[in-house]
């Protein structure tokens, strides 16, 4: 069992969540190790979410759990709402929580056991079972849906999470817990970033990021997910990349600039190796967003970037290079 002296907070944000929030809160109240505190911030829901919260909160308090219940006066968006919830958490370990999932009963116990054994660990994320809106299992786990392979997992275990995350985010907030001291270092979330990926990046910069392959959560996929996980076929991915590739690459470049600015301010503090990795990542993003319209010129630019090795280091290798040849 984990240490009885470790306190646990849950940061839970809601918005238009009346359909699922009661079930989620009941799984939190049924944990083998109960949280010390649950902080719930509702983002100005217009449905019956608030009434459900008031009813279910009474059950949590009856279990001896401190509950902080707040409501935004106007909608601020899920990133700022999570910032608000995180800032009110006082536990040693803080779990991020979505409104529509279902926690396995030993989720907190599983995470705490690992945090207790590894004092240098700052943020831990796990796998999840994808389920539909009714909680029926789908034919994929979260890691499978996000194409998180053995190589990604081993690199996290080896402390290479910073470079992994510069290529793509593989951390999902619904299956994430972190040490509270990370919150003060990371907040406010850098411009253009989502709260969970930014927290993971800051943790990775200090070598404090890792994952476990255990299934700790049933992760609902439904038509009102703000951020979800879906497996796409080859054709769908190709069509999607042709439509949104440019906007995606421009947004990624802006996020990297925001990371560079925060790193220059020491939050996160990067060492010389990490600074060089970030500079190489920026060069790759600049190259991909600066491709010429002329096919002949574009071919030369892509060839040079392939020769640099950065397509394989930070993107999907030749597959990304081929997509960049499209106008």
Describe the structure.
- The protein has 327 residues and is of the alpha/beta class.
- The protein contains 14 helices and 9 strands.
- The protein has helices spanning 21-29, 49-62, 78-87, 107-117, 142-145, 150-157, 161-167, 181-186, 195-205, 234-264, 272-289, 295-308, 310-314, 318-324; strands at residues 8-14, 37-42, 66-71, 93-97, 102-103, 123-131, 137-141, 176-179, 209-220.
- Strands 1, 2, 3, 4, 5, 6, 7, 8 and 9 form a 9-stranded mixed beta sheet that branches.
- Helix 1 (21-29) links the parallel strand 1 and strand 2.
Q: What's the gyration radius in Å? A: 21 Å
Distance between the termini: 57 Å
Characterize the largest beta sheet: strand count, sense, and whether it forms a barrel: 9 strands, mixed
Provide the helix percentage.
Answer: 40-55%
Number of helices: 14
Structural class: alpha/beta
pLDDT averaged residue by residue: 93
Low-confidence stretches: 230-239
> What proportion strand?
15-25%
Order of helices and strands: EHEHEHEEHEEHHHEHHEHHHHH
Molecular shape: globular
Please count the beta strands (DSSP E, at least 2 residues each): 9
